[in-house]
Amino acid sequence: MNISVIKYSGEDTGRKVTLSKEVFGIEPNDHAIYLDVKQFLANQRQGTHKSKERAEIAGSTKKIKKQKGTGTARAGSIKSPVFRGGGRVFGPQPRNYSFKLNKKLKELARKSALTYKAKDKSISVVEDFSFETPKTKEYVKMLTALSLDNKKTLLVLPENNKSVALSGRNVQNTKVVKADMLTTYDVLNADNLILSEGSIEKIDNLLKK
């Protein structure tokens, strides 16, 4: 698949790049995508939720009423779950939600997500660029020149670029990542993928195996 390379100012460079079939043109595997996104979201959970059970409640252990003759059910502790302020039955406890996925399955999921973007023609390739200083206005100007200012975008860079990353940090509905930090969730969560020209080779080296 050939895509025209454009400058971040929106001008056409007259060059084209080829997106490899091994990464951007495979048969997508929806279940691999599902598992990878599920793992990503599970890893975001802190798992610090906690409620107190009856053994952890501070309260008197005095028997609150006599055993028989009250006409109601017997009760031995104010900390019982049936009373207001008592402990909770089977409440949430701290836990780790993360789970393991094989490396090859995660690679398949990323290639499948990239393939879907290529099929939808939602990939733009931009000539490698940088800003002299971090400026949000410059980043917004770039999105406007690419006609992507009203869409959710993901910009993929080959290496760390502090000025570009800081410029896009405060822009709503946009994210800047390095090629080796690209995730299936980020790809699918964006309406359009903006690939810096140098990042294509990085992505190929990571996924073309």
TrEMBL record:
Keyword tRNA processing found: no
One CC-aspect GO term: ribosome
Region (Disordered): 45-78
Top-level taxonomic group: Bacteria
InterPro entries: Ribosomal_uL4 (IPR002136), Ribosomal_uL4-like (IPR013005), Ribosomal_uL4_dom_sf (IPR023574)
A GO MF label: rRNA binding
Primary role: Forms part of the polypeptide exit tunnel.
Recorded family membership: Belongs to the universal ribosomal protein uL4 family.
Name the UniProt record assigns to this protein: Large ribosomal subunit protein uL4
